[in-house]
Amino acid sequence: MDRQIQELLDKTEIRELVNAYASAADRHDQERMRALYHEDAIDEHGPFSQGSAMEFVDRLPEIQAPMEILQHHITTVNLKLSGDRAEGEVYVLALHKVTGSGDMLVGGRYLDKYAKRDGVWKFLHRALVADWFYAVEPSEVNLGHPFVTGAHLGRPGADDPSYGFFTLFRRGER
Description:
This protein has helices at residues 2-26, 30-34, 53-64, 161-165; strands at 37-44, 50-52, 67-82, 85-98, 102-117, 120-136.
């Protein structure tokens, strides 16, 4: 029974890691993103990264600069554990509103390897698989539409309404 409970706890921590990645990416929070990878981790992110995850995180301000809106929606999460290592196939739908390039919707998967070191699960290797891509040029996103009048509007970085709203979620943490 203890093994099953530990496996359940580990899987919960890994799911939280996966969700923290989506949130950090969407908020352009490089400090938080860096904390999700082991120092020796690898990230394969198409044209943006094919090596060191830390180098990928260092490049994120440049990569994300034209991205007015990012939304990563995590759907199916398949995990397999073996002690202090795990693998995951994580399905994602990611919307990108990019200045000058329109709206891009990517359907894909992350092929992940995780390692638990010093009691903490982090990414050891993350590879993006693009299963489909849909683009609309120019953008059709309309945040001025009456349907969203008066709603909080999301934005990259610490100006996002979530940073002022929450007291339990902290910048730079999972």
